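Structure ticket #2291
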Amino acid sequence: MSFNGIVQISAGGMSAQRFRLNVIASNLANQNTTRTPEGGPYRRRDVVFQATPPKPEGKIAGTPTAKHENPTMSVQVVDVITDPSPLVMKYEPGHPDANADGYVAYPNINTFEEMVNMLSATRSYEANATIMKNAKEMSAKIIDLLK
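Resolution: structure written out below.
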């Protein structure tokens, strides 16, 4: 695998994890939102990743690769799904969004779970950044050796 391939794979991972961090931040920011433009409380969202081949290096898009090449894969975001878990019902009869029984439906967001997801996404981003940095340093050393 070439250094460009390594960089493309790491860049794909970094991009996907950055998107995931944005979704997690949105979940945390809306954990008390009881009314959305779509109607009802905010629903927790989660990101779906898919493995995809990186863009061909120096090849015309769509042309098959040689059989001896490694089928390396990168990652991309393919969907943002809504968590179907039940909403949190709290008894607040004075709340403007309370139902006839005095219960308010709050988002199905667990702060601890979101923080763990944020830590995981941050660590994955950092790992990809380290791989990219190391590939860049190795390619610079190879260039120095060839001089």
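Closing remark: Strands lie at 45-52, 74-82, 88-91, 103-106.
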